[in-house]
Amino acid sequence: MGNVSSKNFVPRSRKFVRRNQKSFFQHKHDRKYLTSIMSAVKRAQQWATFARTWHLFDATWQNPFDSAQVIIKHLMGLHKPIYHPMNDCGDHVVVMNSRDIALPGDEWRKRVYFHHTTYPGGASWTLAWELHNKNPTLVIKKAVYNGMDGNLQRRHTMQRLHVFPDDKIPEEILKNISNQIRYLRPVPTRLDHISPEEVENYPKIVDYPKQYILR
Amino acid sequence: MVFQSLTLFARSRGPDEFWRKRKIFKLAAHFVGRKRNCYSIAIRYVHRALRYATMSRKLKKADMLNLWNTRLTAACAEHDINLRTFKEALMRNNILIDRKTLVDLAIWEPRSFKSLTQLAIARGKQDGLNDVMYVKTPPGVITRGMLK
Predict the structure, then answer these.
(1) B20-69 tens-digit pLDDT
(2) Interface residue A48 vs chain B (CB under 8 A)
(3) CB neighbours of residue A17 within 10 Å
(4) How far apart are CA B97 and CA A197, in angstroms?
(5) Which residues of B lie closer than 8 Å to A, measured between beta carbons?
(6) Keyword set for this entry (chain B) (predicted)?
(7) Which residues from chain B sit within 8 angstroms of residue A82, using beta carbons?
(8) Which residue of B has its CA nearest to A74?
(9) Which DSSP string do the residues of A122-181 spell out, in sequence order?
(10) Mind telling me how many Å the CA of A94 is from chain B's nearest CA?
(11) Phi, psi (degrees; rounded to nearest 5) at B35
(12) CA distance A89 to A77
């Protein structure tokens, strides 16, 4: 290599110059490499932080519009200190008993869901009770969907919501669940669900007169 | 240099044209299409980008504050205390940690953050703050700010 004439000497690009071993380990990116070795013992903790958790929510007697806010919080990962809008840290939420939701006031009769087929005259308005009769999961699904900001992430976030009209949840979903979201309001006990003897033995203040007509 | 007229004086301004334009093209290097290659188009978009950069210096601070608030709300909720009460109790304890540091603690040192929430809850109970009156804490949680 000593007598390379200047005519056929082609300087190699810096990129292809081979670095010796010492300078290789002093490269600035190697700090990241060393750090990853140090944190290797904390791998499991790292996995647990970024793992998707499955939450169960029992919608019996719950207001779907209030519940939606709690469900959205878990779907988007807003309940985690590592939350970031660009960080895909949302969890799965399984909603059961969506048939037994309780709408406030006269919302069953007054709330209207709009749909348009995009053809002329294709508009249709469905009352909440009609929609619920057709599909008992749609009211809560729409409450969650409409409760979120409209962005590209919304439809992907919705994929993590699983709604079931009753308590029959498939085994492969049930086995993932590790947490239950606390209900927003206690479920009242209905009189016709209490056993007759318990009702009979409940302490009374007065007896109805014999000629009093109960309807 | 001799300027024979005002027009010629105007034409001879500034440093060499190549270097003057190169400064702009460097700033436009990451643009797409003609706005990175044609000077008269590039200069318009560079001006706009610099304007955005100026505005964003303020927006960035607001964005970060929003993010810290969101994260802290989540971190506090894990320990049964809300953010307002938490900050209030920390101030009363004379624990002066900003939101950024609190978030870093919540993510990287969850146990340190938990002990901070326990201090806050203990102080809140001592001062009768309604939010934390019925939250359970281990006995003997005390800090210098709680002594009266």
Answers:
(1) 999 999 999 999 999 999 999 999 999 999 999 999 999 999 999 999 99
(2) no
(3) 8
(4) 61
(5) 67, 70-75, 77-78, 103, 106-107, 110
(6) Ribonucleoprotein, Ribosomal protein
(7) 71, 107
(8) B74
(9) -EEEEEHHHHHHH-TTHHHHHHHHHHS--STTHHHHHTTEEE-SSS---HHHHTTEEEEP
(10) 21
(11) -70, -5
(12) 5
At the top level of CATH, which class does the domain A54-187 belong to?
Answer: alpha beta
DSSP state of A93: E
ipTM above 0.90 for this complex: no
A126 touches A57 (CB < 8 A): no
CA distances from A42 to A37, A68, B38, B102 (A): 10, 35, 52, 22
> Of A3, A16, A15, A107, which is closest to residue A64 (Cα–Cα)?
A107
| Beta-carbon separation of B106 and A83 below 8 A | no
* More confidently predicted of B48 and A38: B48
pLDDT in tens, A121-158: 999 999 999 999 999 999 999 999 999 999 999 999 99
The minimum CA-CA distance between B115 and chain A, rounded to whole Å, is 16
Q: How many CB pairs under 8 A join A and B?
A: 23
| A123, A115 contact by CB (below 8 A) | yes
Please report, for chain A, the start and end positions of each structural domain, with discontinuous segments joined by +.
54-187
**Size of chain A in residues:** 215
A83 in contact with chain B, both atoms CB, cutoff 8 A: yes
The domain spans of chain B are 6-58, 78-146
Going from the C-alpha of A210 to that of each of A202, A205, B28, B68, the distances in angstroms are: 20, 16, 94, 68
The answer to whether B119 and B141 are in contact (CB under 8 A) is yes
Please tell me if residue A81 touches chain B, with a CB cutoff of 8 Å: yes
The first and second tokens of residue A55, run together, are: 């939450």
- Chosen from B70, B100, B102 to mutate, greatest number of chain A CBs within 10 A: B70
Q: In terms of CA atoms, which chain A residue is nearest residue B67?
A: A84
